[in-house]
Design a protein that fits this description.
Layout lengths: L11 E3 L10 H7 L5 E8 L4 E2 L5 E2 L1 E7 L10 E2 L2 E3 L7 H13 L3 E7 L4 E5 L6 E12 L6 H4 L38 E8 H5 L13 H16 L8 E3 L1
């Protein structure tokens, strides 16, 4: 962990359709013997904001892999990593990876994005089969107001996209470019808050933010669709610590 201090305990709210993942990796592997490893990815959005054209659009946090990485150096991805046997549950794995890679503290799982993707590494006897699960999450550093929980939004026009919520006393305006993202320099070199249009123009080695794989780019676009279409949030959740 690239931080001097361990963060204080924080409640993590999960929806009922993710309760089945509140199990340790060892249990999950027994339930899914076809896999050797599990990877989790975090999709962190700013709230809808106005771009320079006046269009309301959320932005997604991407991180650029280190130039010294053996696989996919300098390409862009969402934060995430391997679930570990030492993690209390699979969902804790994502909270840990999110904090280690960005310094952001996961507070809520919004949804799983798609069924996951299978891939293999190694060859012959050393081949390992993996599954990657992706989740939209919320973090403490991007506060959500009570009004936003009910699906009510307001926006401020300006040159820079901003995270704006109704001023009901439960949140303050948070410009996304002031959100402190702390990277582990051994893994990532830069971060960016990227629009759907920008991701739409990205391919493996083209566009403003070349993505690690075409599949990951498609998952990002799917995540935008789900995020934009979500209705008022239902507070039928439980919390883990």
């Amino acid at each position: 962990m690239p931080f001097d201090e361990v963060p204080k305990p924080i409640s993590i709210h999960i929806p009922p359709d993710l309760y089945h993942l509140t199990i340790p990796l060892s249990t999950w592997l027994k339930q899914h013997p076809q896999y050797d490893r599990l990877v989790v990815g975090a999709f962190i959005f700013t709230s809808r904001s106005n771009d320079q054209a006046g269009t309301q659009q959320p932005r997604l946090l991407l991180v650029q892999r280190s130039k010294t990485e053996r696989a996919f150096p300098n390409l862009w991805e969402v934060p995430g990593g391997s679930s570990e046997l030492s993690d209390p549950t699979i969902l804790h794995s994502l909270a840990r990876e999110t904090f280690e890679e960005t310094g952001l503290r996961l507070t809520r799982f919004v949804r799983q994005i798609g069924p996951g993707v299978e891939f293999s590494t190694g060859t012959k006897q050393r081949e390992k089969k993996w599954l990657k699960l992706s989740f939209e999450i919320e973090v403490a550093e991007i506060p959500v107001s009570k009004a936003e929980v009910l699906g009510d939004m307001t926006h401020e026009h300006g040159d820079k996209p901003r995270h704006e919520v109704v001023d009901d006393g439960s949140s303050s305006q948070t410009p996304f470019d002031t959100i402190l993202v702390t990277l582990d320099p051994e893994e990532h070199q830069r971060h960016a808050w990227v629009s759907e249009n920008e991701i739409g123009r990205c391919y493996l080695d083209h566009g403003p933010y070349p993505i690690v794989t075409e599949y990951q780019r498609q998952v990002m676009l799917q995540a935008f669709d789900l995020h934009k279409s979500q209705g008022p949030r239902l507070e039928q959740t439980t919390a883990i610590h």
